[in-house]
Amino acid sequence: MTIVSTTITPQEIEAHYSVLNRIGVLGDHPNAGFTRAAYSDEESAVMHYFAVQAEQNGLITRWDAAGNLFIETTDRHEQWIECGSHVDTVPAGGNFDGLAGIVAGFVAIATLNQKTRSHGLRLRIWRGEESASFGITSIGASAALGKLSADSLKKRHAGRSLAQAMREQGADPSLIESGQPTIEQNELNQISAHLELHIEQGIVLEKEDKEIGIVSGIRASSRDWITLHGAFDHSGATPMGTTYRRDANLALAYILVALDELFSSYQKENPDIDLVQTIGHINSNREKNEHDKQLYNNAISKVSGYAYFSFELRSCDDILRNRYKQKAMQIIQHIATEYGVSFEIETVSNSSGVKSLDQPIQRRMQSICESLDYSHRTLPSGAWHDAALIAQQTRSDQTTIPTAMIFIPCLNGKSHSPEEFASAEQIAKGASVLATLMQQHVGLV
User: Fold this and answer.
1) Cα torsion through 48, 49, 50, 51, rounded to 10
2) What is the pLDDT of residues 345-391, one digit of tens each?
3) What is the full DSSP assignment across 326-359?
4) Neighbours of 84 (CB within 10 A)
5) Residue 129: which of 90, 159, 91, 92 has the closest Cα?
6) Dihedral angle at the C-alpha atoms of 65, 68, 73, 74, nearest 10 degrees?
7) Does residue 302 have a pLDDT over 70?
8) What is the CATH number of domain 10-219+354-444?
9) Which helix or strand (DSSP H or E) is residue 244 part of?
């Protein structure tokens, strides 16, 4: 198939950012960072900005009961190519995580609106992708697909329940209570391709001087709290050794080293293994410490009787991740027993990744990058994205929706911080790949 490319300019990107850099900013300059919580006035303000822009560009808008905004071309077709992302941020985050994909998607659709096509175009602006506000990831997309539990409505942020926050922003939580999706099955059936542009949130593209990342899969995580119970004893009067001491902190230290050795052994056998593990908290979670005061029974003059840590695994391959986790838990059990401590495992979350995004679209992206003379490479997404939910949806013919992601570099790999940055030139290049993908019926390639 001949590639007819559509080029987006940095000036088109900058025109939107000149306004969006003022919504939710925490100071007099974008470098101060941004806070646009899920179902906040700031998140809504960005969405309303795009609703107005859509009308000015001859596009139509519709809001669903979950508060998501869908922008569409006016032509009616039985097949649709769509893109999407989010506009909310973590507290004191940047203005490119999520928003870059929305700006790129809007510019792409507005540019293609006047061109002859055999399919419709759609931009989905999802509410609340970040878990920072209510402790739930992809609130808007999950609700739209009928996958958000009614218990989620009780989650609280800034003194409000999710249900209250939704009502304040004009959304209707009653559909979530009844488990009803806002996107009908027929609409899902008509999606030929779902695309999402996003900053990488890592440093691979920048390190390798690549302009475009073609995302192979989307990692999901399992997250657990591991709590160790030993015995509080006098630090001077209790002899050293496991015969006398049940030292929770000592057991924790050996567990962490053993987990690192386990991962190193896996990586030695397979240097390109799609797996990462992280110990994010060690006796340091404020919420846990305020709820359970046992940690404060530790003292400089006592053998530690209580310790905990968080254990996160991420992979696109759920089977690989689960097998590794079984071995990790065996190690934890063995060392805990060796040091005379008991342990508890509290599962926080366990989500399913996308092992492989649509390969025909990935190949198409490679051809587009070559035609535009953009350097590129294939890599997995280490972070979760709304696109993963779409990739897991089944149409009436039992096929999944073809889904793909485009990564662009971000400065020093920084994200979720005021240092997060992608230039208008970088976003424009990603938008050009996106627009070129959307211009033709990529779902049939």
Assistant:
1) 40
2) 999 989 999 999 999 999 999 999 999 999 999 999 999 999 999 99
3) HHHHHHHHHHHHHTT-EEEEEEEEE---BS---H
4) 27
5) 90
6) 20
7) yes
8) 3.40.630.10
9) none
pLDDT digits (tens, 9 = 90+) for 282-299: 999 998 998 889 999 999
Question: Would you list the domain boundaries of the chain?
Answer: 10-219+354-444, 226-350
Q: Tell me the sheet residues that pair with 302.
A: 234
What is the arithmetic mean of pLDDT over 107-135?
Answer: 95
- Token readout for 213 is 């990342």
> What's the pTM?
0.91
SS3 content of the chain, % helix, strand, coil (to 5): 40, 20, 40
3-state class of 155 per DSSP? coil
Decide whether 10-219+354-444 matches 226-350 in CATH topology. Answer: no
Identify which has the larger pLDDT, 11 or 30. 11
Cα(292)–Cα(283) distance, integer angstroms: 11
CATH architecture entry for 226-350: 2-Layer Sandwich (3.30)
Across residues 67-79, what is the average pLDDT? 94
Asked if 226 and 281 count as a contact pair (C-beta separation under 8 A), the reply is no
User: What's the CA gap between 168 and 156, in Å, rounded?
Assistant: 14
Task: Tell me the average pLDDT across 171-175.
Answer: 95
CA-to-CA dists, residue 183 to 65, 141, 192, 342, angstroms: 10, 10, 15, 47
Amino acid at 140: G
**Token output for 350:** 């366990």
With residue 218 as reference, give the H or E element that holds it: strand 212-218
β-bridge mates for residue 306, sequence order: 229
